[in-house]
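Model it.
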Amino acid sequence: MNPRNITATGKGGAQYLFEHHMPPAWLVSSIPGAAEAKAAWEAENAKGAELAREYSASGKALVALRNSDPLASELEAAERAYKAADKAVDAQAKRAVVALRRFDALVYGTADPAEFKAMAAQHALAKHEEAVAAWATLKAALTEREQAHGAAGSPGRDWRNSAPINYRSLANVETVVRPMLEAFDVAALKLTAEGERVPAAAEIAQAAIEAHKAADAKAVAAVRARSRKEGF
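Modeled.
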């Protein structure tokens, strides 16, 4: 797994530096104990948020006190409270970072890479089946809706006026959706789910490039050899 950046929020909490590093819900639910670890991290963030509010309030109180000609002892006490609140926020942020790292390690470090990919592949296959069924249901419903709308005299606004010019019919929309479903490599996912190592799309593309380069080099070598043989 690639390392993920974790940072304090500045408000007594912790978060992933990049939003896409946050484990998806399906993954969290698949790892024993991950949901509880996530809840523990969120609880630390909630504590941090409360301390951050107290810190902000103490800062406002200190400013107001400074503007009220206070006694030196009162000002000193308020300043101590402000500094203590600041330290409390920082300390809580560290606890939140620890909790997030614990959650992150549990989610991404429990299974070995092959097991992790197999689990993800199984989930992708399940969601693909859902997508196929959902599209069939949606297409049938939209087709019937349009027929009934026309039979009713097509009252009201025409939705096509709000759609991109190339997608003003269900048939045009289907030209995008159909490849997403029919060209989805289910066979490769099934192999991955069974624990086999299947090349990724980028690897397949790179292999094709290398094969093309090798074929070109072979053709050039053949031309040069023929030229030498013929005395050119």
